[in-house]
Predict the 3D structure of the following.
Amino acid sequence: MARIRRGIAKSAADRLIVLRDHLHSVPRQEDCQCLRSVCIGYVLRHFLGFVVCRYCGLLCDLLSHLDNLALGWRAALECLPNGLTHDGRDRRKRENLVSFANGDPVRDVAISAGKIAAVAPNITAGAADTVDARGKIVAPGLIDIHTHAGRSKEGPPMCLQDGVTGWVDAGSGGADNMDEVAAVARGAPQIGRCLINIARTGVAPGELQDLTRANVDLARGAIARNRDVVIGVKARMSNNVAGANDLEALRRAQAAADSLPVMIHVGQNYSPLRSYLSLLKRGDIVTHIHAPAPNGLLDDKGKLIPEVMQARRRGILFDFGNGVTDHFDWATVEAATKQDFWPDTFSTDWSTMSRTTGVVDMPNVMSKLLMFGMPLSAAIAAGTVNAARIFPAFDDRGTLNVGAPADVAILELREGEFEFVDNYKGTRKGKQRLFPIATVLGGKKTPARA
């Protein structure tokens, strides 16, 4: 048994970890009937600064008919499970945890046999080991839904050092090379999954300029061969990738995906963003959502185009997708957040070179919106529970619930002056930044980053 009491296990046989720090809570699917709504996550994040429940299709359908956020707020409150207060605090005996963060009650997290065994104040059972997490954030292992970690076997262990215990390779492989990317995912220390690129080449310069590369039958065949790790389809829509072929490429991605999610990469598109949104289904993802004009989420006057919020109400998800080239600038982020538009998930567009770029790591990316007023609890949710709910492969992740896999990221929120970089070498200075301190995977502490 190992304990993370402000702290990890000495005994490999029966590990209990007790992580003692501060608590934020989020209901889980088995506790709440409103866990299928993207809209409710937006409404509650807007009013509470906290993502509570986001995935109830029933509620999402209801909210799509509401004319204003006040009605959405009332509907949200009516949907809260018994025992959950208006500020997101769960008073029930059974804990439903996303993270421990400064300012909330101190708790211990016990880990045994690779699972979360208990969460309570001052767990007194003997622990074979203890991790001292005082002053730290004890969060579920981070889930990065847009990486390129599948390009080499060196990638996944590097992600793990950053607190990422689940990742999705977004389009590195197409029908021609999906088998190689899938092999990396299968051999990763943590859970790795893949989105197949609709272009048979995978990511390549201008991969959709020639539509013969978007072969639906070949993509379906590669999905079938690798169904254990392929969980969706990726299509890059930018003008320098697809040009005027963008809409047809997206239609082919949907045909190959069938019921699987489709992630589209946007930014400087040939077609307006609204054209893509009309072709997306519930559960599909738009990454690089803060990419600047042309054809982004803002109109010529800097206002959010109405189709974006309409898409959110239909269950389309919006991902930050940091990346390094033309994927976001500070002006677009500032304009969107001032209009209460926040990403559902954080992702890095990570590669093995990311530590030398403005990406750095997942906690650094999660820190970038704190300076715009995103609550810490919402930022952590966007890197854990929100991401976990997109793909069924991660359905038991993104939580510190009792019985969940013991994947834990211990982070430190440091105060000071920190410089953050956008994709255009623009810099902003923030007063807070998250740093990865330690990672627990399946109840075992993993090697720290050098």
Q: What stands out?
A: Residues 6-17, 20-97 have pLDDT under 50 and may be disordered. Residues 246-257 form the longest helix (12 residues).
